[in-house]
Design goal:
The complex is a heterodimer of chains A (about 230) and B (about 425). Chain A is α/β, with parallel strands linked by helices and about 230 residues long. Chain A has one domain: P-loop containing nucleotide triphosphate hydrolases (Rossmann fold, 3-Layer(aba) Sandwich). Chain A has helices spanning about 45-50, 75-85, 100-110, 115-130, 145-155, 175-190, 200-205, and strands at about 1-15, 15-30, 35, 60-65, 65-70, 85-90, 160-165, 195-200, 210-215, 215-225. In chain A, the strands form two sheets. In chain A, strands 6-7-8-3-9-10 form a six-stranded mixed beta sheet, sandwiched between helices. A four-stranded antiparallel beta sheet of chain A has the order 2-1-4-5, covered by helices on one side. The longest helix of chain A has 16 residues, at about 175-190. Chain A is globular. Chain B is α+β, with helices and mostly antiparallel strands and about 425 residues long. Chain B has three domains: about 1-60 and about 285-420, no CATH class; about 75-100 and about 240-270, no CATH class; about 105-240, no CATH class. Helices cover about 55% and strands about 15% of the residues of chain B. Chain B has helices at about 1-5, 10-20, 25-60, 95-100, 140-145, 160, 170-180, 220-225, 245-260, 275-320, 320-330, 335-370, 385-415, 415-420; strands at about 65-70, 90, 105-115, 120-125, 130, 135, 150, 165-170, 190, 195-205, 215-220, 235, 235-240, 270-275. Chain B has a six-stranded mixed beta sheet with strand order 11-6-3-13-1-14. In chain B, strands 4, 5, 7, 8, 9 and 10 form a six-stranded mixed beta sheet that branches. In chain B, helix 10 (about 275-320) runs parallel beside helix 13 (about 385-415). Classes of the chains: A alpha/beta (about 230), B alpha+beta (about 425). The interface of A and B includes residues 82, 83, 91, 97 and 110 of A.
Chain lengths: ~230, ~425
């Protein structure tokens, strides 16, 4: 599903340049649930941003679902993001003046789907994350866990190939975190490929594979026995 | 192509309405800026137009390119005559003037009693009497200064002059003072200086420039000549030049010709007097044109200021919405979709503000109109703004709105989604 070869990325800070990713190679098969771990500054967020086409690598190949991702202009990147990827952010990033339903239907709007159909699909996904009754509420009227579930519904609504979650539990308490991870595991069981960036060990253990980054290189890449989040709830 | 399709897409507007509705303060402040601009523009140019119309109404019953010429005393000794000689204009001058000054369209010799010195003749009927000014006129006079005659009546005609008929056209006030309310004066007789005259018409008085009043009585020139024994004398000429003639030039030619006929020094400025309405009109029209231009400039400048305000506020709001725009980009909004949304927001706000401003301006103009309706001495009528001007202003606003919207739109697009998302 995802294939990365020899990926490099540096940022220039003033006159000096910071080499963040120093040759990353890894593959993700369809249906995997991968945790990308590392301390801050290890390059894990940069990697996720490049995977999410929010950022562009300096060197290396990136193939997503047999499509080589290169020479992207913003318009093309936007199309690919919309088709291939769903994003879940640490700070939810819901649009605060739109209701839960409107937030979920937003990626569908950018896919050019008609309003009525859009709302039906969005409602299905809200139901899936257990927030059907909250569809008309604004983000400010939702709890953190609910917000993240709306964000997950939004990420799923466009039927992406890959779900990218950047510290999805970073702003949540542990109980809520496990609820969110439970949801992510369920989505994964349905066959969706998911990458989770986290620095929390217990969250990483709920994935099927852990990739550890340190100073811009992969220091460990192993499959693990998944801990079911439902056992904590 | 894609962006054009977007304009007519209901969803695009739903997005725009959503963002406008949810940023109420911003919307209101923005709208007020442009609203004020267009309001000033409409109110000012409407007011200027009202003044324009007012002037036009003041002079609507007299030919634009007309003038009066009269004779006075000489101020320079000439051709053997000493200074201070009285000059009298003659009926025979007309033929000379027409020959020498081809720009003359109409020329009407006039005599009057009670206008320039002297007392008004006594007009009486039965036991009522009053003093009114009496004019001796040829029908050609009405070609220069329109006389509105009430139904059933007419002005003095050629036949009246030919036979020196004792007929007269009276004014509204003459009628009210000499007749009962329900009495029809047409065909009745009144006495002018003890001579019976039959009334052939009542003229409607239109207030405006000049010395005429609502009590004036017009009789045939020839009749006037006989009863007041004026001979060949003409007190003054009323002249209308062709529309394309230069009024000042015509006046000078008339004066020069008259000076030659009456053996007056060409340098004598006093002997022949004149009042040039055409010149006055030109000045007044220049003034009201200036007013219109001024209001146009002020209005458009204010609109521009307002639109710049919109751009400014949108720029701030783009900064505030950086994250939202980043999220939209992450969810698959293309840069052109983001750009179009912001430009459309700008245009939409401008347009709404513009329309409200136009409506408010119209209300104010209607108010001014109602307030000045009954002021006859104030030259102000029907303040309107021509539709093309309004549409033009709207077009300018849409254009400027697009242009100014480009700045924040470009700004929004230039922010990378990754940076937008990172911003907390």
């Amino acid at each position: 599903m995802i294939s990365i070869k020899d990926l490099h990325k540096s940022y220039s800070i003033g006159n000096s340049s910071l080499h963040v990713l120093k040759g990353i190679n890894f593959e993700v098969e369809e249906g995997e649930l991968v945790a990308i771990m590392g301390s801050s500054g290890s390059g894990k967020s940069t990697l996720l941003n490049i995977l999410g086409m929010l950022d562009i690598a300096d060197e290396g190949d990136y193939i997503l679902d047999q499509v080589p991702i290169k020479n992207l202009n913003e318009t093309k990147a936007a199309k690919y993001r919309n088709q291939f990827l769903g994003f879940v952010f640490q700070s939810f990033n819901l649009i605060n003046y739109k209701s839960a339903l409107e937030n979920v239907s937003l990626p569908l709007y950018y896919q050019g789907i008609k309003r009525k159909e859009r709302q039906e699909i969005a409602m299905d996904y809200l139901e899936k994350v257990g927030l059907k009754e909250w569809s008309t509420h604004l983000p400010s009227e939702l709890s953190g866990g609910q917000k993240q579930r709306v964000a997950i519904a939004r990420a799923l609504a466009s039927k992406p190939k890959v779900l990218l979650a950047d510290e999805p539990t970073g702003a949540l308490d542990s109980t809520t975190s496990y609820e969110v991870m439970d949801l992510i595991q369920k989505i994964n069981q349905e066959g969706k490929t998911i990458l989770v960036v986290t620095h929390e060990e217990d969250i990483a253990r709920m994935c099927k594979r852990i990739v550890r980054l340190k100073d811009g290189v992969i220091i460990e890449d192993k499959n693990i026995n998944q801990v079911l989040a439902s056992s904590y709830v | 192509m894609n962006s054009l399709k977007n304009i007519f897409d209901r969803d695009t507007w739903q997005e725009i309405f959503g963002s406008i509705e949810k940023n109420k303060t911003r919307t209101v402040i923005t709208v007020i800026g442009v609203l004020w601009g267009i309001f000033i523009y409409i109110a000012l140019s409407g007011a200027a137009k009202g003044l324009d119309n007012g002037f036009e109404r003041q002079f609507e019953n007299i030919a634009m390119n007309s003038m009066f010429i009269w004779a006075q005393r000489t101020s320079i000794p000439y051709d053997g005559f000493k200074i201070g000689r009285s000059i009298e204009l003659k009926l025979s001058d007309i033929d000379y003037l027409k020959q020498r000054v081809p720009e003359i369209q109409y020329i009407a010799p006039r005599n009057a009693r009670g206008v320039f010195g002297g007392s008004s003749p006594l007009i009486s009927r039965k036991n009522k009497s009053s003093n009114f000014n009496v004019y001796g006129d040829f029908p050609v006079y009405t070609k220069i200064a329109t006389k509105k005659i009430y139904d059933g009546g007419r002005f003095v005609n050629e036949e009246d002059n030919k036979f020196s008929r004792k007929v007269c056209v009276i004014g509204e006030r003459t009628q009210t003072e000499l007749f009962e309310k329900d009495e029809n004066p047409i065909g009745q007789y009144i006495k002018i200086d003890n001579i019976y005259f039959q009334i052939i018409g009542v003229h409607k008085f239109v207030p405006g420039g000049g010395f005429e009043t609502d009590g004036d009585i017009f009789i045939p020139f020839e009749t006037f000549r006989k009863i007041y024994n004026t001979g060949e004398t003409v007190q003054w000429f009323t002249v209308a030049a062709y529309d394309d003639a230069d009024a000042v030039d015509v006046e000078n030619k008339l004066k020069a010709t008259l000076k030659r006929i009456h053996r007056v020094s060409p340098d004598d400025e006093r002997a022949i007097g004149g009042f040039n309405l055409g010149e006055v009109f030109t000045k007044i029209y220049g003034f009201s044109k200036g007013m219109t231009l001024l209001s146009l400039i002020v209005g458009i400048a204010t609109i521009i200021a307002g639109v710049i305000g919109i751009g400014n506020i949108l720029l701030i709001s783009v900064k505030e919405r950086t994250k939202e725009l980043g999220v939209r980009r992450a969810l698959g909004a293309t840069p052109s979709e983001v750009r179009n949304q912001i430009i459309l927001e700008s245009v939409f706000l401008t347009l709404i503000a513009g329309i409200i401003g136009i409506i408010l301006g119209a209300i104010v103009l209607a108010g001014i109109n109602a307030g000045t309706q009954n002021l006859t001495d104030f030259p102000y009528t029907n303040p309107t703004v021509p539709i093309p001007f309004v549409l033009g202003a709207l077009a300018i606003m849409i254009f400027l709105g697009t242009l100014i919207g480009l700045i924040p739109a470009q700004r929004a697009v230039s922010i990378k989604p990754i940076d937008a998302l990172r911003e907390e």
